Amino acid sequence: MELSTAHGPAEAALDAPADPAFLLVLTHGSNGGVDAPDLLAVRDAALELGGAVARVMQPFRLAGRRAPGSPVKQDEAWLEIVAALRARFGDVPLVQGGRSNGARVACRTARAAGAAGVLALAFPLHPPGKPERSRADELRSAGTEVLVVNGDRDPFGVPDPADAARVVVLPGERHDLAKDPAAVAAAAVPWLRRWAASRTAVSP
C-alpha cells in the first residue's frame, strides 16, 4: 500500500484477516527495513491472534536515507500514515510500535494517534556510551501503556521497569534482537492478546 505524506511517500506491507480484531502498525529503525527478524516474528504472532498488521517503510527510508532527520517531520508523516491505515481498517483498536528509532516514533505519537498501546522493540534508551542522554521521557509521555522488549546486551541501554507498563529483558540479545525472534514474539503475545480478547468479548 502506497501512502502519501507531507514529507514524502511511504509504503506499508499489509497482512490482514477479513475482520481483524485490532490493527498493529510497526516500523523499522533508522537504518533498517520492515523485514527485520523481530518485526516479522511479531507480525506472525499478531496474525495468529486475528490482528491486521501493517509494516511501514517511512518516507526517509523509502527515499534511501539512513537517518530520519527532524523528529517533528518524522512524527507528522507518521501520524498521516496511521490515519490512512485506520481509515482502511475501520474502528478497531490501534497498537503501534517498531524497533529502535521506530519505537521512539511510536511513543512520541501514541497520544496524538489515539493508540491503545505501544510495542517498543529495542528501545534506544540513550546513545551508546552516553547514559546521561536518556530518552526515558519518550516512554513516560506516551499517554498509553507501553511494552518494551530489549536485550540485556543492548549498547543503547535498557529502560527501567518504572518507565513503561512492562519491560521484558531477553538474555543474550543485542540491539538487533535477532538471536531468538520467537522470544520477542512470545513477549508480545500476552500484550496483543488483550485486544483480540476485547473483540471476542463484544462479538454477538
From TrEMBL:
Molecular function terms, GO-annotated: hydrolase activity
Lineage, opening ranks: Bacteria, Bacillati, Actinomycetota, Actinomycetes, Streptosporangiales
Keyword Hydrolase: yes
Domain of life according to the entry: Bacteria
Pfam family, one: Abhydrolase_11
Protein name: Alpha/beta family hydrolase
InterPro entries registered for this protein in UniProt: AB_hydrolase_fold, KANL3/Tex30_Abhydrolase, NSL3/Tex30
KANL3/Tex30 alpha/beta hydrolase-like domain boundaries: 23-161
Keywords attached to this entry: Hydrolase
UniProt source species: Actinomadura sediminis
Keyword Amino-acid biosynthesis carried by entry: no
